[in-house]
UniProtKB/TrEMBL annotation:
GO terms for molecular function: nucleic acid binding. It holds the Pfam family DDE_3. It comes from Pseudoxanthomonas spadix (strain BD-a59). InterPro entries: RNaseH_sf, Tc1-like_DDE_dom, Transpos_IS630-like, Winged_HTH_dom. This is Transposase.
Amino acid sequence: MKRLGYSPQRPLYRAWQQDPLLVAQWHAKQYPKIVARAKREGALVFFADESGIRSDHHAGTTWAPVGQTPVVKATGARFGFNILSAVNARGHFRFMSVEGSVNGQVFKQFLQRLIAGQTQKIFLIVGGHPSYKARLVKLFVEEHADRIELFFLPPVLS
């Protein structure tokens, strides 16, 4: 493979459902409006997302002689957890780890922690995870409209 110009590489993962046109439009039109409004209102713009982490995940590559698959020895005791995080261009970073699934209750707790101690309103840009749109999250955001507002990235194709 090397003689043919190939090398072992880790692939970049992209959502095949993502609509590049919608993303470009959002970036060109919606995002500048959010940033301008945040500046007028003295708010901070954050991006948030969730991610799952597993103890048995293997993302790397390695070389081995042809026909001899490399073996990585690891424990059979596997575990995983989820992380919610929010970051902004000023270097602010907030995160929360949870055992179990990310649902509306967990996301609400994350929002509570995110606004705790903040003197500025937060404009939080999120994706389409169902927990972000849960009824109790909507109610929480409405009750704290002076401290936090959610903005949604363009949806993926169905």
